[in-house]
Design a protein that fits this description.
Elements: H1 15-23, H2 28-37, E1 42-45, H3 51-59, E2 64-67, H4 75-88, H5 95-98, H6 131-141, H7 145-152, H8 160-181, E3 184-192, E4 203-209, H9 216-227, E5 232-237, H10 243-254, E6 259-264, H11 280-294, E7 301-306, H12 319-334, E8 339-345, H13 351-361, E9 368-372, E10 375-383, E11 398-402, H14 407-418, E12 423-428, H15 437-446, E13 450-455, H16 461-470, E14 475-478, H17 493-513, E15 521-527, H18 529-532, H19 538-556, E16 562-566, H20 574-578, H21 581-586, E17 589-590, H22 594-607, E18 611-614, E19 616-617, H23 619-626, H24 639-647, H25 656-663, H26 668-687, H27 701-704, H28 708-722, H29 730-733, H30 737-748, H31 754-772, H32 778-796, H33 806-814, H34 817-830
Amino acid sequence: IVSNLTGGLVEAYTADYWVRHVREAVRFSDGAQTLHDLGVSTFVEVGPGGVLSGMVQGCLDSPVTVPVLRADRPERQALITGLARLHTRGVPVDWRAFFSGGRTVDLPTYAFQHERYWVEAPEPVAPVADPVDAEFWETVDREDLEALAGTLDIRADDTFSEVLPRLSSWRRQRKEQSTVDGWRYHETWKRIPDPNGTRRPGAWLVPVSAARLDEEWVAACLSGLTDRGLDPLPVPVEPAADRKSLAGQLAEAAGTKTVAGVLSLLAIDGSPAPTAGLTNGVALSVLLVQALGDAGIDAPLWCATRNTMGVGPAEPADPDQSQVWGLGRVAALEHSPRWGGLVDLPEAIDDRVAGRLAGVLGQSAEDQVAVRARGVFARRLSRVTGGHKGRTWSPRGTVLITGGTGALGGHVARWLAGAGAEHLVLTSRRGMDAPGAGELKSELEALGSRVTVAACDVADRDALRALLDEHPVNAVVHTAGTAEAGMLTDTTLDDFAATVSAKALGARYLDELLAGRELDAFVLFSSVSGVWGSGGQAAYAAANAFLDGLARHRRSRGLAATAIAWGPWGEGGMVADTGDEERLRLRGLNALRPHQAVSALQSALSGGDITVTVADVDWERFVGPFTLSRPSALLGELPEVRNALAEEPTEQADEPSALRKKLSGLSEGEQQRLLVDTVCARAAAVLGHSGSSAVEADLPFRDLGFDSLTAIELRNLLTADTGLTLPATLVFDYPTSEAIARHLRAELADEEGSSEVSVFSELDRLESVISAVSSAEEAVRSGVRRRLQELLSLMNSTDGRGEKPADAQRQLEDATIDDIFDLVDQDLGNS
């Protein structure tokens, strides 16, 4: 230890030492020189920034300085970069400790067997005009002194030295705001030509809540499909149905008929379900997706809603039915081969609407559609162009923040306190007992706000009512919620309801209890999982789709509402809690820095957004895996997505018939090799590798980095390749590419023709073995001839009709090709 008091090695710590340490000069340069004299050439700074690293470089000639934290980048990135720099400088790093549970791989066997992992420098491109700079110089060119003075807060007596820092600060703020504006997306509805889909042969199962079966709207849907030759078979479902009974009911309804498709009308039942927190429409829709798989019905499933999506500005929205849209977006990822889409229908089903519905069901290009009397509309995600230029929203009075002691709620509270909020009410289930609640309260009070931290579960209507009676609010920010991951197939209805209720029920009660109060803002923290779906998060997606629907519903009633569908937040929140930030980054979703997210929140409020998506997406990296099992019309018109797909087209699965054609005529060994190559190629594509060589055929999938979502993606691709019905647990049942290939070969084998193909291919192998021993000693060749004659005698002992004596027949039936080779090998060995 080198002392900053003396600049030399510390000899002893005494009370006098610490008194002098406080009062006397810091001898930093002397300390750095002492370390240099002791042979130190590499300095690691463990602290909040790189200030000391810069100071060391000023004290010594060419030292290596490595700060482990940097103010301009995430902590994890800075730390790993620091370790990498140390490693490249020859400093020993214990990588086994760093990669806990990791594995080592064999080095290439010769120098030219290699694969580059370095990021290639992009080709230089012509510079694109910076909109911030363009705005500034446009003002200068106009010689608009008044605008420039207002922008930079310049007074007549200000000197240039006073103006310059303001200009620099303004430019930094505008550039950051421009970056944040680039993360904003809106849902839009694009008018498309009326689909003229091909009518699939077979019947259409139409599950409908038994209580709604006699409704005129349901009857109109059924008759409209009948008139167009779709043969609908209504399946009335009782609210008390469970997964097993519904699967049986569906199988019985299908009977021996060919099922062309499934059109669910369950969503329109808004009555409370036996499972608390859900409507019958939502609960039965969850069970339907699961039960269709259990019943082995692989026809495409379309889920219909009524007056839900608010295509036009004056149209109403239904938050409860919106949950089915969130559910469906995840089902499309997890059950791609048997998913059709989502269709929102109007209140009145006339002849034009029925015809358009039939057309939608017969096509596959669009899977999120709204049918109206005036036409058919397809859902799209589009970038918000231009930033907000107008009134800047600011808080006043009392603001309620649900989940206020959590990471996201804390960031929002700090912004509101700094913006002048007089009173902040922060709720959580534990109140002041929540971790960090006391420190947060003190911090906010130091910013000038009065702070109340209340223990209140917003999903408890009575408790929430009492809180609102005690603290009348001017604005609400609802951040509370939990996200429990789990594949839809494995999710129970109770678990689904618990996740939905944690987020949606509080929002519902806030809407109901504050319906008669004029608010400055009613902000709902939603998620991108509800916008485009996220594998393993069906319940969370449904809850967030509810929030988006609730915002549209409130605005249609003339009430304040803004729903922001966030990408992952950094520095706390659910992503940090689960450690998924790096995994999401690798899939193209970068975590938002809190101050940037808060800036986007203020823009949404200032601009009067109803629903807006805020996410930092690397579309080139994101769109490939996302569209691996099915294309996405929703994202397809974003310029970045269109360019990415044009430059690097997503590898699509072969037609099942194409793969089967390749397999036919091959030997068993060749079939196995082709299937192994196919599985490895698909696994590499799912994991984002550049080629199948990155996937070792005998390495377990868990060691390759597969999780439940990537396992489903691989299953979907192999289903499309083979045409087989493969289980969601395929990767876990057959844990290597070799094992899956063997399973696929067994499933694909044509029992009637495989024997002949196998025998002749093995005879080819036998011929090659004989050729190999042709130069062997006479004793060996004599033994081979004897065995071959015995085999030939066995084959010749048949009558003219191909029938064999009983003994020979039994021997031949019981023998396999491996048995034949074992006999040959035995003779060769004995000889």
